[in-house]
Amino acid sequence: MARKQEFVLYGAAASGSVAVEAALTLLGIPFQLIEGETWSSKAARERVGGQNPMRQVPTLVMPNGETITESAAILIWLADLHPAAQLAPAIGDPARAQFLRWMFFVSSAIYSLHWIKPDVSRIGAPEGSRNNVVDAVHARIAFCWRTMDAQLKPSKYLLGDALSVLDLYVAVISRFGPWRERFCQEAPNMMPAIIRVDEDPRLKSLWERRFPSG
Q1: Which of 99, 107, 122, 191 has the smallest C-beta neighbourhood within 10 Å, fewest atoms?
Q2: Which of 51, 45, 52 minimizes the C-alpha distance to 12?
Q3: Mean pLDDT value across residues 173-187
């Protein structure tokens, strides 16, 4: 049972939920973490299914019992709820439009493609073609990182001198296939900002715990 007045996050190591864990950590918000690799465990899917019919992580349950899903939505909501932390450009800030653009680009054009890989039949492909499908997915993701990199002009961080949840999001999703080495090749302009997020002392132990293989 979760304690009263505490967020509950359904998540898993090496998944998109780690970006939410990072945001909660930076904001100093206590939360209960319920582990579950929903892509490989029926028990985990059933555990999450009570809160999220899609049976996916991240799923965040607020202290009042309300549920919010979708990683980009959770990150934006947390940042907007705590404006003093400056984890997102405020409404009216000239950077807000591009912040929203790239948050949803990462979510829809990149992160969503990883849904295909555990079960290629989801797109009507036979299991025997799995390797070819995964290679094609990785090629598309690399193209999307390259496209994003060509249009951003990062400073200290992706949108300027302030760390935002976009930086956290990219720092996590860029660790997925086709992996960081390929991300570095495709997104050289973004890479220094992401290395800075990797090395943030407030998050270092989180990255080590949740991405133990690097």
Answers
A1: 122
A2: 45
A3: 97
Q: What is the torsional sign of CA 213, 181, 130, 117?
A: positive
How many Cβ atoms sit within 10 Å of the Cβ of residue 148? 21
Other CB atoms within 10 A of residue 67 CB: 14
CATH of residue 17:
3.40.30.10
* DSSP state letter for 29: -
3-class secondary structure, 146: helix
Contacts of 124 (CB under 8 A, 6+ apart): none
Give the domain CATH number at 120.
Answer: 1.20.1050.10
| Percent with pLDDT over 90 in the chain | 93
Residue type, 101: R
Q: Does the residue 90 lie in any domain?
A: no
Strands 67-69 and 59-61: antiparallel
What average pLDDT does this structure show over 36-56? 91
Per the structure block, which two tokens stand in for 133?
A: 């499908």
Residue partners of 156: CB distance under 8 A and separation at least 6: 162, 193, 196
| Helix/strand/coil for 85 | helix
The pair of three-digit structure tokens given for residue 174, joined into one six-digit string: 């860029």
